[in-house]
Amino acid sequence: MGEQPDDAAVTDTFELAGVPDAFQRLWTPHRLAYIKGGQKQVSSKETCPFCAAPERSDEESLIVHRGKHAFVILNLFPYNAGHLLVCPYRHVPDYTDIDPEETAEIAALTQTAMRVLRKVSSPTGFNLGMNQGETGGAGIAAHLHQHIVPRWGGDGNFLPIIAQTKAITQTLGDVRRQVADAWPEEGSGPDSED
Fold first, then answer.
1. Rounded to an integer, what distance in angstroms lies between the CA atom of residue 178 and that of residue 160?
2. Known catalytic residues?
3. CB–CB of 106/122 below 8 Å?
C-alpha cells in the first residue's frame, strides 16, 4: 500500500510501540497472539498451555501454587492485576468431567486465592467463574479453569468500554512473586491469614 501523500500531516513522529506520546496510547501488543489464534491454538493436550505450565518452573509459567489435583496460575491476559486461574492438572473441558477430589481442591484453592489477594492487594470484591465451551466464552475451552478476578472501586472505568483497553498496574512477574510469597504453607489451615 505504501505511504499516502498526506501521511506526514496526520501521523505523529513516534514510531516505537509503547513510547508515551501526546495521544496517551496504551499498547497491548502481547494480546495479538491470543486474538489471532483463538480457540484453534489449543487443539490437543500437546498444544494446551495449562498442560504445559506445570512442566516448567513456577516463575516461567506464572504458577503461584501447586496442589495435588490442581494448580493456581496467573492469567497471561488479565482483566485486573492479580487475575488468577485455578486449573486441574487433567486436561478436561467441562466442570462435570472432574472428580470429587478435584472439585474439592479447586474450591479450596479458590478460597485460599481470595484470602491471599485480600492480604496482598486489598480488593473490595471478586468475580469468580468458569466459562464453559467456546460459545460460553471460554478463551481455552479444551481445559477447564476457574477465574478469580480481584475488583476495586473504579477499576471498570471508561477505557475498557470506549477503547477496549485495560490498564494493568503491575507486571505479571511482580504479581506472581507477591501472591506466591503470601500463599500459606501446607497445613497452616484454611482460615490462615499469615
1. 26
2. 145
3. no
